[in-house]
Design a protein that fits this description.
With 256 residues, this protein is α/β, with parallel strands linked by helices. The protein has six helices and eleven strands. Bound molecules: S-adenosylmethionine.
C-alpha cells in the first residue's frame, strides 16, 4: 500500500531542495569540494550520499584495496560524488549513469575537478539503456529513489525521479536486469531506506528471482526532515537459488 504522506513529503523535499536559498553551487563532502549544477540531487540536504560512500568503504582512512582493472557502475550518479570516490579509491573503469542529463554533466564536471576523467565515463541512461551490451562490472551500485509513488503519478520534472519511483517500476527493472551487467564474480548493490516500502521491494525481488541480502545498515537522524530517524540499508542482490544461508541477517549496524 502506498504511504501517501511519504510520497507527498518526498515531492515537497524535491521541490524545496531546488528552491532553497542556501542551495550551494559548490559543496564540501568527503573532505573535498564538489560542483552542484541546477536540477541535480543535492547531497547537502540529505545524508544519503555520505552514507553511500561510507557503506562502500570509499572514504575510510585506508579504503579496502581494489583489484587492478576493477570496474564500477553507478546507476543514478547525481552530482557524481560516489562514482568519483570509486575512481579515487582505485577502480580503473567507472561509469556514472543517470536519467537526468544535468546529472550526467555534473558527474563529468566533478570527475574533471578531481582528475579522474581518464577513468570515469558519464552516461545518460535510463538504468542500463545507455551502456554497450557487452559491458560488465565488478560492482553495480544504485542509491535509489526508494520512496514508492502511485503507479499513475506523472513526474513533473526529472528531478522528482531522484526521490520517488512510480509503482517501483525502476526498482523492478533494476532487480530483473542487473545480473546481466555483472562480471562472473561481480556484486549488485542497492542502497535503500525505511522511507521506502521494504515489503514491496522484497516481493518484487522474489517475483524477479532475486533475494535481498543485508550487508550494512545505519540509523541516522535527519535534521533537515524534522529530526526523523531513518534507517539506511545496503543490500546485495543475489539470485534466489543461491540459498538463504548466504544472507547476512539484519542488524549488522554501523554508526554514522
Ligand atoms: C537519491 S538520488 C542519488 C544521487 C547520487 N547517487 C548521490 O548520492 O548524490 C537518485 C538518482 O537516481 C537517478 N535515477 C532515478 N531513476 C533513474 C533511472 N531509471 N535511471 C538512471 N538514473 C535514475 C536520479 O536522477 C538521481 O540522480
Amino acid at each position: 500500500m502506498i504511504q501517501t504522506q511519504r510520497f507527498v513529503r518526498s515531492l515537497q523535499r524535491s521541490r524545496m531542495s531546488l528552491e532553497r536559498e542556501d542551495r550551494p553551487e559548490v559543496f564540501a563532502l568527503c573532505g573535498r569540494e564538489w560542483d552542484l549544477l541546477d536540477e541535480v540531487f543535492a547531497p547537502v540536504f540529505c545524508p544519503s550520499t555520505a552514507i553511500a560512500v561510507d557503506f562502500l568503504g570509499l572514504d575510510g582512512p585506508v579504503p579496502p584495496p581494489v583489484p587492478r582493472g576493477a570496474s564500477f557502475l553507478e546507476i543514478g550518479c547525481g552530482s557524481g560524488v560516489t562514482a568519483v570516490m570509486a575512481a579515487l579509491a582505485g577502480y580503473d573503469h567507472v561509469v556514472a549513469a543517470d536519467i537526468s542529463p544535468r546529472a550526467v554533466e555534473n558527474a563529468a564536471v566533478n570527475a574533471e575537478r578531481h582528475g579522474v576523467e581518464d577513468r570515469l565515463r558519464a552516461v545518460h541512461s535510463d538504468l542500463f539503456s545507455g551502456l554497450a551490451s557487452d559491458e560488465r562490472f565488478d560492482v553495480v551500485f544504485w542509491s535509489s529513489n526508494y520512496v514508492l509513488a502511485p503507479e499513475d503519478y506523472q513526474y513533473q520534472s526529472v528531478h522528482e525521479r531522484a526521490y520517488v519511483d512510480t509503482g517501483y517500476r525502476a526498482h523492478r527493472r533494476f532487480l530483473e536486469q542487473v545480473p546481466h551487467w555483472l562480471t562472473p564474480t561481480g556484486s549488485a548493490l542497492l542502497h535503500f531506506s525505511d522511507r521506502g516500502d521494504l515489503v514491496e521491494l522484497d516481493r518484487i525481488a522474489g517475483q524477479s528471482g532475486r533475494e535481498l541480502s543485508l550487508l550494512r545498515s545505519v540509523r541516522v537522524k535527519e535534521p533537515e526532515y524534522g529530526g526523523d530517524v531513518v534507517e539506511h540499508m545496503l543490500f546485495e542482490i543475489r539470485a534466489a537459488d543461491r540459498g538463504a544461508g548466504a544472507s547476512v541477517p539484519r542488524g549488522s549496524v554501523i554508526t554514522a
